[in-house]
Design a protein that fits this description.
CATH topology of the largest domain: Pseudouridine synthase
Number of domains: 2
Helix content: 10-25%
CATH architecture of the largest domain: 2-Layer Sandwich
CATH superfamily of the largest domain: Pseudouridine synthase
Oligomer: single chain
Radius of gyration: 18 Å
Shape: globular
CATH class of the largest domain: Alpha Beta
Number of strands: 13
Strand content: 25-35%
Distance between the termini: 22 Å
């Protein structure tokens, strides 16, 4: 029998599982069938993943329209087909930018900007996921059209060449992997995302988040 659970779980998603796999595990912990998440995190990414159960799923749309924050590392000088650590290296470049060069181009990536999603993304094209088409070689990273996204703030948190750590506050539809690609291009090189952590979704932050192990030991929810 399904438990009547209504509310949010703020998961600190571990690396190595998809967002839907994370939802499935939380559903099993709470014994519920109806659950959804507030914004996809790639399997290699970690951090805040709000999971709504029961009546709380009705609030997911509003949650997805809210702001998000990330902390991530860009590696300059090479890139992969997926623009992250899960892909195969497809290009290298000897150009490694300085911290001053990076700081000089960051204003181009603040405010309303145009950004093309990665080919390896969950966007649907004629009923098929882009990542399925990309795996079959039918589309590449130059295929998807650019769209407007909002970047409220972006800054360099640390830099030890060729690795730059950034913090960004953004609106819906922003792709960190696209940011890494486009930033590297603006600097005359290539780059990909080495590490990615989401630090906030709307009002939920890492301070609110619990690991899967913590939830299994003490399955507490936040009320609607």
């Amino acid at each position: 029998m399904e438990n009547q659970v209504n509310g949010f779980v703020i998961l600190n998603k571990p690396a190595g599982i998809s967002s839907m796999q994370a939802v499935a595990r939380v559903r099993r912990i709470f014994g519920v069938k109806k659950a959804g998440h507030g914004g996809t995190l790639d399997p290699f990414a970690t951090g805040v993943l709000p999971i709504a159960m029961g009546k709380a799923t009705k609030q997911l749309t509003a949650l997805l329209d809210g702001g998000k924050s990330y902390r991530f590392t860009v590696e300059f000088g090479r890139t992969t087909d997926t623009l992250d650590t899960e892909g195969q290296v497809i290009e290298t470049c000897d150009k490694i930018p300085s911290s001053d060069e990076i700081a000089a181009v960051l204003p181009q990536f603040t405010g309303t900007i145009m950004q093309a999603p990665p080919a390896f993304s969950a966007i649907k094209l004629n009923g098929k996921r882009a990542y399925d088409l990309a795996r079959k070689g039918k589309i590449d990273d130059n295929f998807l059209a650019k769209r407007e996204v909002m970047v409220y703030k972006v800054s360099i948190a640390d830099y030890k060449a060729p690795f730059a750590v950034f913090e960004v506050e953004c609106g819906k539809g922003f792709y960190v992997r696209s940011f890494g690609r486009d930033l590297a291009k603006a600097l005359g090189t290539v780059g990909f995302i080495k590490q990615l952590e989401r630090t906030a979704v709307g009002r939920f932050t890492l301070e609110d988040a619990r690991t899967m192990e913590q939830l299994a030991e003490n399955p507490v929810i936040r009320p609607v």
